[in-house]
Amino acid sequence: MKNSLMTNIFNCEREYLVNFCSINNGPYTWKFSNIHLPDMYLHNFILIEVEFDGIERYINSEIEKAQRNHSSFLRIVTPFQLSNHTIKGLSFNPEEGAYDYMVINTRDFKLLHGNPDCQIERAVSSNIIDDGFLVDKQANQHLEWADFYQRRFERKKKVYEKFDQNFQFYVCYHNNAPIGKVESAFLDEFVKIEDFDILEKYQRKGFGTSVIKHLLKTANSMNINQAYLMTDGSDSAKEMYTKCGFEKAGEVWEYIFFLDK
After folding, report:
1. Could you read off the pLDDT of 17-72 as tens digits, one per residue?
2. Of the candidates 246, 150, 242, 231, the residue with the CA atom closest to the CA atom of residue 196
3. Which of 84, 96, 180, 190 could form a disulfide with 198 if both were Cys (CB 3.0 to 4.6 A apart)?
4. How far is CA 29 from the centre of its chain?
5. Which phi-psi region, left, alpha or beta, contains residue 175 (left: φ > 0; alpha: ψ -120 to 50)?
6. CA neighbor of 179 nearest in space, from 206, 159, 160, 155
7. DSSP run (H or E) holding 57
8. Which candidate, 190, 235, 238, places its Cα nearest to that of 215?
9. How far is CA 44 from CA 1, 22, 159, in A?
10. What is the rounded CA–CA span in Å between residue 196 and residue 182?
11. What does the pLDDT average to over 197-216?
12. Tens digit of pLDDT for each residue in 174-201?
């Protein structure tokens, strides 16, 4: 990767994912798999770091392996866009998408205001984690995969119940009711912001900004200079991130092959 900032972010991503996934690397590639959540796209994929001769043949061989293992999908992630020529040579036609990585300097917490009418609590007890679970359930209950989101949270809960300083879970309260939650991973060079939700009723009222400010201030006190998150074009919170001062650092493309169609 030519972008050194993105290289550092990908290194942090691996540092984060190792807590949930098994990781194997080969020439130009990294394979991630989560045996507890084999249907979770973000934890089961192959990262191809650079273009190389034979990439089309490589992807087709991985499709064949996934089929032999009766996998329903194969997800490929790249920091570059596959050419139309390569895609036409693949045995399955993928669904293509793009994600932006956005970064901010943690000292910028001083520029944020938010809504002071809330309390942000780190989950240092199972009760607070359970409050976060309620937010997660309410935020995703309308989705077709509500059962998946419950299984995903239960899996992550096992990590956050260790109350490790580097993996912190926060819940945002308004009038003592949980209205938002966010996960954060304090890594070598960054704090990673993950699975951030504010319940729809409380959006656009400054609560999300308050959560971001709290995370940045915490990271800054730990001498971590930058924070990052990943978002896609349909993410309704992207406008808030931009207003808070996040800037695009780079992007990745994903190619999902649905093998059971």
Report:
1. 988 899 999 999 999 999 989 989 999 999 999 999 999 999 999 999 999 999 99
2. 231
3. 180
4. 19
5. left
6. 206
7. helix 55-68
8. 190
9. 21, 9, 18
10. 4
11. 95
12. 999 999 999 999 887 899 999 999 999 9
The residue with tokens 């992630």 is: 77
Strand bridging mode 119-122 / 167-174: antiparallel
Which residue from 67, 59, 51, 49 is spatially nearest to 9, judged by alpha carbons?
Answer: 49
The two tokens of residue 34 are 């989560």
Q: Which residues contact 80 (CB under 8 A, 6 or more apart)?
A: 50, 51, 253
66-100 pLDDT, tens digit each: 999 999 999 999 999 999 999 999 999 999 999 99
CB atoms inside a 10 Å sphere around CB 27: 8
User: What percent of the chain has a predicted confidence (pLDDT) above 90?
Assistant: 71
User: Is residue 167 within 8 Å of 17, Cβ to Cβ?
Assistant: no
Assigned token pair, 28:
């130009």
Q: How many other CB atoms sit within 10 Å of the CB of residue 66?
A: 19
Q: Return the pLDDT at 1.
A: 46
User: For the chain, how many residues are written?
Assistant: 261
| pLDDT tens digits, one per residue of 95-134 | 999 999 999 999 999 999 999 999 999 999 989 999 998 9
Which residues are within 8 A (CB) of 178 and not within 5 positions of it... i.e. 6 or more apart?
131, 132, 134, 135, 171, 172
CA distance 87 to 101: 24
Rounded CA-CA distance 194/80 in Å is 23
